Amino acid sequence: GRFRAVAAMSNAYVVRFLRVLSFLLVVYLFGRVGLHWSILVPLILGWIVLEKRQMRFQQKIQSFLFVQDRKKLASLPELPSWVSFPEVEPLDWLNVVLKKMWPYINQTAVEQIRTSTHPIIQNNLPTLLSSLEFTELDMGNKPPLFTGMKAYERKNKEDMLFDCHFVWDGEFVALMKAKVALSSFDLGLTDLRIAGSVRILAKPLVTRPPFIGALSISLVNRPDIDFTLKGIANIMEVPGLHGVLRNFLTNTIVNMLVFPERIIVPLVDLPPATIDALQNPEPTGFLLVNLVSGRALKVADAMSAMLRSAPLCTLQVGNQSYQATAPKRTADPTWDLTFEFVVHDANVQKLKLEVIDKDQFDIDQSLGSCEIPLKSSEDGTWITHLETLNRVSTGQLVVKTMYKPLEKSMEESAGLPLPEERFSCALLRVALFKLTGLVSAQPADIYCELNVSNTSQQTSVASYTNEPEWGKHFDFRVKDVSKEKLTVKVFAKQPLKLLKNVLLGVVEVPLDELIYRTPKTLWPLEGAAAGQPLLHMHVKLKVLRDIKRLSSFKRDLPVDSSLSSDGLFTPFPR
Fold first, then answer.
1. pTM
2. Among the listed residues 444, 470, 431, 476, the one whose alpha carbon sits nearest the alpha carbon of residue 457
3. 376, 372, 377: which is closest to 387 by C-alpha?
4. 198-219 pLDDT, tens per residue?
């Protein structure tokens, strides 16, 4: 069996080498005959398309074998989690239940996707698109296949936590209508394939049936996503649109479902504050990651050995990600770069690293990946990890990690935190609820832009209203509390992208005031043309637990009374 596998792999490399050699021979003959180089462009595009189709075909075959015959799992490049990890249990019973219930789940899920994704898609459209809407949606007849489940031992007796590993290679079809400037075209998304881990938190546990208050569902890390875009002929008429659409749709899926983003399914009646705490978990600390070097990385193929670029390493914690490119082409790269992540639950979150061979003339290929549980990182101490890359024959990464916990509450006598060199000393959490008291001739599409230092975030657009509501939480990393401030700008969106949006007003909050001033929840909108608009917003500053403080710093500030007694919005949990 091993000899056949090696022979099949050798044959695949020989075939690929001959295809590349044939292509280069065609290029040489074109030059020899004296034909114009522009004739080669469609040939090159056609060759790239064929390569991608071949790779997708191979992925489908592997997925088919995975589903149909578990006796052949050993021949596949990625084994089910219950084979590799003894603490993971198989979920055959769940797959049987899902198969029976999928037709009913399909109908509910289609409507839920339409409702939840429409505002997110419209508010985050790339510049090239003016609109993108679903015209038809079908989840297909094949449910996801769950390959294993891991249950976590929790000190907290009020919840239960499970991670379920899954692969979905169904018959998903989404037809969309896309508009670019004054033209429009039909777009189809098919052959959707997602592989990853879904996290299910059962919390709180209650004393009445069904004994679980709510389920919180999210993806542990960025999943592996692949799909096919139809309508390519129309898309190719606009340069760069195909790549923009793929990145936009992939990021939309990730930003909706990857932890800490989550879907809450209440099973009993719960107070709004409890739902808000489940929907928006507070960060617990920062993770510093020093990507040191790689050792004996695998060369993807013979052609990559000659034309390969410097190895690229991606780092992910939840929906946060960074990329690091080595300074030169080598199998033993040195990065020595440090990154900072916001951590929401160090006991269950993981750092995922993947090394990629960026090929200029072919599809990027993975050189292996690994995961580091954050609970293995100690508080305030650098820990060195030598991680062997999975799914490849050779390759290791040298990584250093350090976890820096945040205080649970800010004591008034603690003093001003001193800035950390290069890294954050505090985290600012902003809960933006709504805007009231706006005087305007007619309703408008209103949104807010939040800025701290060089970091900007934006709310969704509240459509056609004079009293917009958002109910959204935002997190900002802070390096120097004494110098930085929060700026919130409220805009009325113009119908045409070429027109500049109208600024309705601004709220500015110096961060050092948050240490000694009683937090308020109603903020006057400065610069408003008429009326006295109030921004309903809660601002909370959390500093590192072991940070040095300047205890002598004290500002003479008036005390603001809290104005949250109107009950129109949910206060911060905990």
1. 0.75
2. 476
3. 372
4. 999 999 999 988 899 999 999 8
